[in-house]
Amino acid sequence: MSQILVNNLTFSYEGSFDNIFENASFSIDTDWKLGFIGRNGKGKTTFLRLLTGNYAYRGNINASVAFDYFPYAVTRAQRTLPASAFLEELKSGCEEWRVICELAQLNEDADILYRPFQTLSFGEQTKILLAVLFSGENDFLLIDEPTNHLDQNARETVKNYLTGKKGFILVSHDRDLLDACTDHVLVLNRQTIEVQSGNFSIWWENKQRKDQFVIAENEKHMKEIGKLKQAARRTAAWADKNEATKIGYDPVKEHDRSMGTRAYIGAKTKKMQSRVTQMKQRIDREIEEKEGLLQDLEKTVDLRLAPLSHHKERLVQLRDYSLQYEDAQTPVFTGVTFEIRRGDRIALHGENGCGKSTLIKVILQRAGFKNFPVKFSEDGLCETASGLVISYVSQDTSGLAGSIADFCKKKNLDQSLFCSILRQLDFERVQFMKNMEDYSEGQKKKTLLAASLLTPAHLYIWDEPLNYIDVFSRMQIEKLLLKYEPTLLFVEHDVRFRETVATEVVTLPAPSRCLLH
């Protein structure tokens, strides 16, 4: 066991307005299983890249271990080859037999090493890259979002695999994964960085207690500030009134006053004004202390939604529905039967490749979306209600580019309202000056979600909306959906989100049947 020491770390991207890290100092042990928690855009991936030496920085990072980063960058040329042909290129000194041993722990046969990489599923590709990552010795491993785009079975396998490992930092927004795989957390707060023992749930429970204490202390400070301001106003008024009596007096009404009284009044007024100054200084100290208390308080704003109400109760119906792509030898799925009624929140669930996204595109096509041409043969019934308005969030963010103003104009969105929603999702104002292709993946997903929330619709269809989205925003969205109860069809592999939000789960086993719980 050794330590990684970070002292006075300061870093900002070239041309950036603000530092991502400023004089950050902390230490971690190399045998910890560390969960990395923080809002989108706060610098989690950037910190991992600093550890691997990708960027220049000020300050010191001292470590006696080598760092290795997941996911490896697989080139276009490598993707056409079997992984066995480029293992050494991914990790220097990587031995194939070690990778095979790691694959066995991931419940995967070695034959996937000898098939073209691009023909493998997301889960199989992820397992190979993880097996390569853990095939070395004495490295401290940096694991960045390993379960994005993975189905539930693959997630469970990766979770069980990482539970038996140690010596890594895991960046993930999946609460279930963080709870199972970590024994410490590294947290990027609003102003500070903290290291704490325990998994996500332990940290979250401690955080809620701490936040409640901070809120209570803040309320006491606000009351004290109010009393001080009131006393300062009263004393200032007395001083002003007293000052006004220095010059001029009625000798009949004030027959006992002499000319020397002016100096006495002046001294008394000066004393009162000194008290006002002291009160103002105390108020400033109280405000500064209050702001110090609140600097790390992660306060989320309740989001709003304005779903439309359709005149029909049933919006989508599928009965014994089967679909097969042109030129394909087997159907994508068969015998799918379910319906979407007003107020339903239905989760499509199943393994990667079972047809969840395809089914979504068919429903969009039925509702009049022209951007989703799907060439297929079908059997059974798939129909949507007439005049159905759908708000859609795709899992693909690659098309986001240009300014927010251009995006709002293209989508016919009110720019000020759109930016307001992004602010509620913890976008900093400086992000509005950037082009969207420069956003982090989490910020891109929030952009798509904000556009959907701003679009009144009868039915909301979200395809893996939470990939890369931070934990706090996930909880915000959960609260929104439970409050406004929109009609929703979604695909999401976050177990806790699905269990919290879904009223029904439609499972698409590939390819023969559909089960409704």
Pick out its properties.
disordered C terminus; single chain; six-stranded mixed beta sheet; 517 residues; 15 helices
What this model shows, in words?
This protein is an alpha/beta fold and 517 residues long. Helix content is 38%, strand content 21%. It has helices at 44-51, 76-79, 87-90, 96-105, 122-133, 152-163, 175-181, 200-243, 261-294, 356-366, 404-411, 415-424, 441-453, 471-484, 495-501, and strands at residues 3-11, 21-29, 33-38, 58-62, 66-70, 139-144, 168-171, 184-188, 193-197, 314-325, 333-341, 345-349, 376-384, 390-393, 459-463, 488-491, 504-507, 515-516. The strands form four sheets. A six-stranded mixed sheet has the order 5-6-7-3-8-9, with helices on both faces. Helix 4 crosses helix 5 (122-133) and helix 8 packs antiparallel against helix 9. Residues 511-517 have low confidence and may be disordered.
Number of helices: 15
Read across the widest sheet, the strand sequence of neighbours is: 5-6-7-3-8-9
Q: How many DSSP-defined strands?
A: 18
Tell me the major beta sheet: 6 strands, mixed
Beta fraction:
15-25%
Coarse shape: globular
Structural class: alpha/beta
Helical coverage, percent range: 25-40%
Between the first and last Cα atoms, what is the distance in angstroms? Answer: 48 Å
Mean pLDDT: 86
**CA gyration radius, whole angstroms:** 30 Å
Low-confidence stretches: 511-517
